[in-house]
Design a protein that fits this description.
about 350 residues; alpha/beta; two-stranded antiparallel ribbon; Spore Coat Polysaccharide Biosynthesis Protein SpsA, Chain A
Length: about 350
Amino acid sequence: MHAGTMIRSLNVLIPTCARPAALAVTLTSLCAQTYPDFNVIISDQTENGDPLLANEVQAAARLLALHGHQVGTHKHLPRRGIAEQRQFLLEQANSYYVLYLDDDVILEPDLIQRLMQAMGEEQCGFVGSAPIGLSCREEERPGQQSIEFWEGPVRPERVMPDSPAWQRYHLHSAANILHLQRRLDIRPRHQRKYHVAWIGACVLYDAKKLHECGGFRFWQDLPADHCGEEVFVQNRLLERYGGCGIIPSGCYHQELPTTIADRSANAFQLLHERPRDGRIDVVIAVPAGELIDKITILEIKAGKMKDPAKLAHVKDELKQLQQVRDRRLPSSGRLDQL
């Protein structure tokens, strides 16, 4: 199976290891997606055997191809950890957006369409759909069902372990999302976006923004057995571009045992204080008025500048200062008038 050279708006990236049946179920759920413009790339790290040749996987891949979705497969060894596996997949992609899927999820037919819709509306770093564990569908956990909706555009935000925002992750446990979307009567046609600390299993990324934040290249700084790689990446994207979850979810976990048995090395805990992209962050305190003046000057320059190279530099500087403003200055009527 080969992905070919056809460029699509979306590549679905699936890391897998020794799970042919679960992978086949995941691929089958992709066959019924209402969003048409995607291909699939699978990277397998099974050391003994080849689940990509299993009849159930081959059948699902052929059905995807019949529906116009090319499926590319790679046998990627030796195993160097899940972050390296994700980076390898990212390097195979040639699309504007990438959807990382775990190999043990089931998607509602409209889910990719809804993820792409939310991304188109927000142009943020990532949009995710938290997986629901249906074995817990009768288990209510009201203490874990707090949700904070985005009432305006998704904006950059800083979420750290010592902040209340970090506790948002509880919402994604068990079947909390299912109970909440039913109680609030939120339907797919009127989906809502909410604040997250991170999301796993089904996450759509803007590929360019993911690359700009370094992707998963930090894998070389981690032991082969680790976890938390998406927490680290999404934390970077949240701070620079913002990110969100969508409800209702539409993603369901097959609830298989993890293939990462040793989870003692957490990527976020090991790396989150490291300078971004290998650069040293220099922080200089300036008055709010001076920041607004600088932004205004750059906006004027951007409107008048003709040289493409200089304009790109000005726009980049303007974007960075606007992100600082959005993160550090509280919104107010007076500020909006400036």
